[in-house]
Amino acid sequence: MVDALMTTYRRLPVAFTKGRGAWLWDEQGNKFLDAVSGVGVCALGHAHPKVADAVCKQAQTLLHTSNWYRIPAQEQAAELLCQRAGMERAFFCNSGAEAVEAALKIARLYGHTRRIALPNVVVAENSFHGRTLATLSATGNRKVQAGFEPLVQGFLRVPFNDTDALHSVAENNHNVVAILLEPIQGEGGVNIADADYLRNVRAICNDNDWLMMLDEVQSGLGRTGAWFSYQHYDVCPDVAALAKGLGNGIPVGACLARGNAATLFTPGAHGSTFGGNPLACTAAMAVLDAIDHEGLVKRAAQLGAHMISELSGQLAGLDQVRNIRGKGLMIGIELSSPCSELVNAAIANGLLINVTAERVVRLLPPLVISDAEAQQIVDGVVKVIKAFSGSR
Fold first, then answer.
1. Pick the catalytic residue: 32, 91, 128, 228?
2. What is the residue range of 354's domain?
3. Fewest beta carbons less than 10 Å away: which of 192, 254, 273, 280?
4. Is 215 a catalytic residue?
5. Pairing status of strand 321-327 against strand 330-335
6. Is the same domain home to 152 and 67?
7. Distance of alpha carbon 246 from alpha carbon 364, whole angstroms
8. Of the residues 32, 155, 244, 265, which is catalytic?
9. Looking at the structure, do residues 328 and 368 belong to the same domain, yes or no?
């Protein structure tokens, strides 16, 4: 059966049959502690009872009607999201890439309302925004783009965390209509925006009538110890793209907007056949309710700080370790050499981790992990990194 699949993934030699909380079991019954939660998707862990119950009941009632009709669950989910995000309106889709696509279309519409014929969007180096043609064109990773030329035009790339570069763009390019950033670059290596940088971005956008658009696909929904990572910096964007943890495994994304950006889409300007259907929005509401009632936003902040402290202490003095950084339960451990082999080493020890940007061990554990499970992740990661460093 494997041969019938397109080779778009370099899959690891393990397949899982069930999950519960932070744990997964493979076909042979072996148990693994999941420190990546489906690349940040299963923020509530696997088989969370509140989500499972909500999805089961909705599946027995109504799955889909299409956006030709009102969808009460979609309206309710939009209100709940906007309240937490400080936004006004939501567009529902099926993935993070689609949420960013919606944001880019908003930027283009915004530019045309200002009579800018060729609207430009400023994006950052080392960013990742998706694999559709527009989002891979916005992405700051040549490997993602290679072979898919011609790329979508209209993007200006600047170094991340560089305010001077933004001022230079503002002075020299009058076709810019928006800036699109990840507050924390996940795929790029868990690179965290400086507080002053995001505040400066907000000020530059205000001064130049640009839309501030933030990709919160990986960093949103409580993962960093705030509902949205921009809330750490006391700024609010005009547009925010969400997905991953929003459905805890049910495909659902959202593009949130406020102010002028919230009113640019009109009937026929954008759409999605499956976006915001009753099942997806019911799952999203169950996720938001669970995060609230289980106090997981505050928990992520406290547990993440503890894990970073523990990792820093246990890995102190190890020459291979360059930096340990993170916010909440979005943690990166940067090594001095490529370390993709650590993924298989961790699997052999019953632990699931990820390596991104070639040298960064990325941890995105479920927000529901216990203190003991958090310590087990720390100890497992330290073990494989020390073994890796000892072999160098």
1. 128
2. 2-48+295-390
3. 273
4. yes
5. antiparallel
6. yes
7. 15
8. 244
9. yes
